Amino acid sequence: MNIDTSHPMGFADAMVKDRRMRYVGVYNDSFRSDAEVEGFIKRYGLEKRCQSIEELTEMSDIGFIQGCNWDEHLRCAQPFIERGKPVMIDKPLVGSERDCRRVRELASQGAVLLGSSSARYTYEIQELSRLPVEERGELVSVLGTDAQ
After folding, report:
1. Please, what sign has the CA dihedral across residues 24, 12, 6, 80?
2. Which pTM does this prediction carry?
């Protein structure tokens, strides 16, 4: 899991509030600095910074692929797939037609590959969707942004 985008933080914030799951480790081979990665680890109480995706896979129940280079998503997901673990892959899922065909093939073989966006898991959006239609109106789409 790279922490390229805001999604790792969005998921981590939701996980902290929900207390049903958490990130246990991070592997970062992208553009984030060591200080940024160490800050993420400290902020969310991760157990360690892994030296390989395989190491992260061994200590995880599910993979989160959240790098912004979608041409690398399947390569990063492969160790999880090989171990029969589900993988949430940030959007876009993949970056080529060839990789789309590969996703279909992997899924037909039983791999669990899920597109991910942290927006659908934010508490604000979940709370809004729980309100009665009479109170909130019919939801067609919801966009959440961080006002910080």
Report:
1. positive
2. 0.78
DSSP string, 5-69: SSHHHHHHHHHHHH-S----EE---SS--HHHHHHHHHHHT-SEE-SSHHHHHHH-SSEEE--S-
Please write the tens of the pLDDT for every residue from 42-72.
Answer: 999 999 999 999 999 999 999 999 888 999 9
Q: What are phi and psi of 83, to 5 degrees?
A: -100, 10
Structure tokens at 28: 């970062």
Alpha-carbon distance of 10 to 122, in angstroms, equals 7
Token pair for 130:
């729980």
In the chain, what percentage of residues exceed pLDDT 90?
A: 55
* Host H or E run for residue 57: helix 53-59
Q: What region does 45 belong to: left with phi over 0, alpha with psi -120 to 50, or beta?
A: left
Which of 52, 51, 61, 50 shows the shortest CA–CA distance to 15? 61
